[in-house]
Design brief:
mainly alpha; Serine Threonine Protein Phosphatase 5, Tetratricopeptide repeat; elongated
């Protein structure tokens, strides 16, 4: 007959063994992250979150990886959980600033990211994110300073390099803009923004054939962004049918975006 008795010493030993096993798994995830196997690290960290939903450390590790990879949608749920549980840390504030930036809440983003940049200047991507927030609000001098600080920490930061390209475009310094956009592409050839801004710089330099190639590449990378199609239509306006085709593509993208926003609002 089952009496329902549990020996507290046995339970304590089991709990200790289980915790030691989870700690070993956490160390394994950290090793994978150091070796650059982020996919493996994320998979293991997710398993640890499932094994112990109240364990803070795996969620913090996931946040760091997601921020470094600029996957703020994936970071959002862990950020909310940590905030609800009263966990305060500069890296968590970094995620909050990044999420605010993605939501176009620029004032909140600047406040959070400025704090992180001050207390933890080595936090991944903090300076390039702060520069982006400044740029989006028209504070170009502050943005340039943040981007240059980012490059001091990480000389191959594609966001910082592309951000400097945007600033030089705004100042009609197109050769400098093209140089920074090309440097960004050397770091990340899949960066839509860098291809697009390279196209704008080349248009400013009068190099329309090369600009067409840059915009076409951007459109292939993310077909759901209308901006590249509009620029291609402008370049090809002398060819009526070609320009009309690009405008049609751009309008279709805009229509789909509006439909998606309408569905989300329902």
């Amino acid at each position: 007959m089952e009496l329902g008795y549990a020996d507290p010493e046995v339970d304590a030993l089991r709990a200790t063994a289980r915790r030691q096993h989870l700690e070993v798994e956490l160390q394994a995830a950290d090793k994978l992250q150091r070796e650059g196997d982020l996919t493996g690290a994320v998979r293991l960290l997710k398993q640890l979150v499932e094994a112990d939903a109240e364990w803070i450390t795996p969620r913090q590790r996931l946040l760091e990886i997601y921020v470094r990879e600029h996957d703020f949608a994936a970071a959002d749920s862990h950020f909310e959980w940590l905030a609800e549980h009263g966990v305060e840390h500069p890296r968590i504030a970094l995620v909050g600033g990044a999420i605010a930036l993605a939501r176009r809440e620029f004032g909140e983003a600047i406040e959070a990211l400025t704090y992180v940049a001050f207390v933890d200047p080595d936090a991944p991507s903090v300076h390039s994110l702060l520069g982006t927030a400044f740029r989006r609000t028209g504070r170009y001098r502050d943005a340039e300073a943040a981007f240059r600080t980012a490059l001091q920490h990480s000389p191959r930061d594609p966001i910082a390099l592309d951000g400097l390209a945007v600033i030089h475009i705004a100042e009609s310094e197109f050769a400098e803009a093209a140089s920074y956009a090309l440097q960004a592409l050397e770091c990340d050839m899949q960066a839509f923004a860098a291809h697009y801004h390279l196209g704008l710089a080349l248009v400013g330099m009068g190099r329309l054939a090369e600009a067409t190639a840059a915009f076409s590449t951007a459109a292939r990378l993310i077909p759901t962004r209308a901006a590249a199609y509009f620029q291609l239509a402008k370049i090809n306006k002398s060819s009526g049918q070609t320009a009309a085709n690009f405008r049609k593509l751009a309008r279709e993208v805009v229509r789909q975006q509006r439909a998606a926003r309408h569905r989300e609002a329902r």
